[in-house]
Specification:
alpha/beta; Rossmann fold; five-stranded parallel β-sheet; two-stranded antiparallel sheet; 8 helices; 7 strands; amino-acid biosynthesis; EC 2.7.1.71; transferase
Length: 191
């Protein structure tokens, strides 16, 4: 059974995925990397050029590719880090459900907000730069606006992830290694 990591942007999915894959000696995949390998474009570029529908189609194709790859391997196990918006892509989720266990990496809002908002910068003319697409589409006029938009987004997404998850891991108070061990133990007890 594969481990499928999900959660808000910058919650540690890729970091945990790499640690867990090493501990279990199984392959690690990041759906955003698979999308790039398949299209030559980053998820952000696809989203900007083709909108949400085009991005979700690319994400579903990446997940279908992983399903085939994992099913054709001898071990049939892997660790997969998903993009932060996978929770809104039913077709991709349906594919991933055939692969393994959904693990929600629950990160405190203050940590997630800091990690997302630290990338934002403000140009001399006041233009906000490096804003994630899910915030940019709400047209924030300031970093404070972006923070409020993120708060609302975080609350909504956390509820969705909790409903989808087979396992919920609180990522707030442990080291990376300890969190990886918690994830492995929790998934093992589910199988």
């Amino acid at each position: 059974m594969s481990i499928i990591l999900m959660g808000i942007k910058h919650c540690g999915k890729s970091t945990q995925g790499r640690i867990i894959s090493k501990k279990l000696s199984v392959p690690f995949f990041d759906t955003d990397d698979v999308i790039f390998e398949m299209t030559g474009k980053t998820p952000r570029q696809i989203y900007t050029e083709l909108g949400n529908e085009g991005f979700q189609e690319a994400e579903e194709k990446a997940c279908s590719f992983l399903l085939e790859k994992i099913n054709s391997s001898a071990e049939k196990n892997a660790v997969i880090a998903t993009g932060g918006g996978i929770c809104g892509n039913k077709k991709a989720l349906d594919v991933l459900k055939k692969i393994g266990t959904f693990v929600f990496l629950k990160t405190p809002e203050r940590i997630a907000s800091f990690r997302v908002l630290r990338e934002i910068s403000v140009a001399q003319d006041g233009t906000i730069l490096n804003v994630p697409a899910f915030i940019a589409k709400k047209n924030p006029r300031s970093v404070a606006d972006a923070k409020k938009i993120f708060h609302d987004f975080f609350i909504e997404r956390e509820c969705i992830y909790e409903q989808l998850a087979d396992v919920v891991i609180d990522m707030s108070s442990s080291s990376k290694e300890a969190n990886a061990a918690k994830i492995i133990e929790s998934v093992s007890s589910k199988v």
